[in-house]
Amino acid sequence: MLLRYFYDEYLAHASYMVGCQKTGEAIVIDPSRNIGQYIVMAKANGLRVTAATETHVHADFVSGARELEARTGAKIYLSDEGGINWKYDNLINVNHQLLKDGDIFSIGHLKFEVMHTPGHTPESISFLLTDTGGGADRPMGVFTGDFIFVGDVGRPDLLETAVGYEGAAEQGAKEMFASIERFKQLPDYLQIWPAHGAGSACGKSLGAIPSSTAGYEKMFNPALQYHDEETFSRDLLRGQPEPPKYFSIMKQVNKSGPTFKGDLAAPSKSNDQSDLIKWLKNGIVIDTRNVDEFGKGHIPGTINIPFNKSFVKWAGWLIDYDKPLYLLVEAGTMNKLLTALYSIGIERIAGYMDVVSAIRNHPHLESYEEIEPEHVNYMERSAVLDVRNQDEWGLGCIPGAAHIMLGTLPDRLDEVPQGCPIVVYCASGIRSAMAASILQANGIKDVYNLKGGYSLWKKQKVVSTKSI
């Protein structure tokens, strides 16, 4: 047996390829849209991808299962659990098999047993893997998808908070409790292979370790320490982060089937400043530089989403899927940017331009200033805007600040005070810098970013209090 682990740091998403070396067959579990990596890995190990499967209808990335089926002829195995609202659509011409709890299928000498593990979503399933080719008659591990993570479990509220199904959060929490009780009956030695790691919005506090064991999670995973459903449900639902705006779009895309990447039109490159003017009028222009460079000088009307590990998260929050998207990019990053954007279904990428050339050739740049924490209270007529998450806001804020979480800012600009300087802050100054770009792009020009954010403000406040 061959087991390979793939991890997308932008999505905090883990996928797996399991191969039977005796028959040369391989299956991919929870594949990303970047399917080439699996085909290359299979070929390098003398295998061919003959199957793919998903643990559930994903909300945080575009699945590559259907494209693997179209490109390689792989059979895809999909959940048939959860009721009519959670069934996959458009499978008439797709080589597939629907799965119920207790079903067994084999890839070569690899046996997969299906467990229905609802809670994160009603259709969620897990896969117990047994390597019968090696003589085993018991499973060695379980692919848990978004059910059991290292140190956490999947959030049960997304169908309500992101998709709009009223009452789904409470029902999901109850189902999660029942699924966990069933999980606790599994042998302690089983390896646990989850679909996400730290940084994913599919749970509250996922661990950064890629895998675990059932026994370890039973002992130390906080969500597995409860013995009554009511307390468990209350605590699981409390403090869940805001669901990214794009999750509802991903649910529908993965349920119905995405456009294949090979069918997407490639964006055109331009060096013409007149094109940039048209882009600003017709769509959204994203400057992908780091926040320090952007703050010192940028083209009016552009929005700053730095190309780092948080890029996909904030792109999904801040980019309008219905508008053409244009990118100002640094040298050598365009292909990676496209992969990242396509991974969450942002496909209307109409053009791009080298950001250094664009800045150099633009006649009228604008900027925003950073302000030291001790100067906030001395700015006349200023308003203070906190763009942190709700749970951060609940733990403390700068007195008098208004709260608009960064991801919701484009839809709540009418709540931003007008006609006065705006001091924006987050925890450290990165999210607030993006917020400053959104404000300026929408005509609110007198903006200041709080240097060091709330963390530095609070630290200096403590120091100044002690010195009194």
N-to-C span: 67 Å
Strand content bin: 15-25%
Q: Major sheet: order of its strands?
A: 1-2-3-4-5-6
Specify the structural class: alpha/beta
Radius of gyration: 24 Å
Low-confidence spans: 463-468
Largest sheet descriptor:
6 strands, mixed
Number of helices: 15
Counting DSSP E segments of at least 2 residues, the number of strands comes to 24
Mean pLDDT: 94
Give the overall silhouette.
Answer: globular
Description:
With 468 residues, this protein is of the alpha/beta class. The protein is 29% helix and 22% strand. The protein contains 15 helices and 24 strands. The longest helix is centred in the middle third of the chain and has 16 residues. It is globular. The C terminus is likely disordered.
Brief rundown of the structure:
With 468 residues, the chain is an alpha/beta fold. The chain is 29% helix and 22% strand. It has helices at 36-44, 65-72, 158-161, 168-183, 214-220, 229-237, 247-256, 273-282, 291-296, 311-318, 334-343, 355-361, 390-394, 430-441, 453-467, and strands at residues 2-8, 13-20, 25-29, 48-53, 75-79, 96-99, 104-107, 110-116, 125-131, 141-145, 148-149, 152-153, 191-194, 212-213, 268-269, 284-287, 303-304, 325-329, 349-354, 369-371, 383-386, 402-403, 422-425, 447-450.
Which structural traits does this protein have?
six-stranded mixed sheet, alpha/beta, disordered C terminus, 468 residues
List the helices and strands and how they pair.
Blueprint: E1 2-8, E2 13-20, E3 25-29, H1 36-44, E4 48-53, H2 65-72, E5 75-79, E6 96-99, E7 104-107, E8 110-116, E9 125-131, E10 141-145, E11 148-149, E12 152-153, H3 158-161, H4 168-183, E13 191-194, E14 212-213, H5 214-220, H6 229-237, H7 247-256, E15 268-269, H8 273-282, E16 284-287, H9 291-296, E17 303-304, H10 311-318, E18 325-329, H11 334-343, E19 349-354, H12 355-361, E20 369-371, E21 383-386, H13 390-394, E22 402-403, E23 422-425, H14 430-441, E24 447-450, H15 453-467
Parallel strand pairs: 3-4, 4-5, 5-6, 10-13, 15-19, 16-17, 16-18, 18-19, 20-24, 21-22, 21-23, 23-24
Antiparallel strand pairs: 1-2, 2-3, 7-8, 8-9, 9-10, 11-12, 13-14
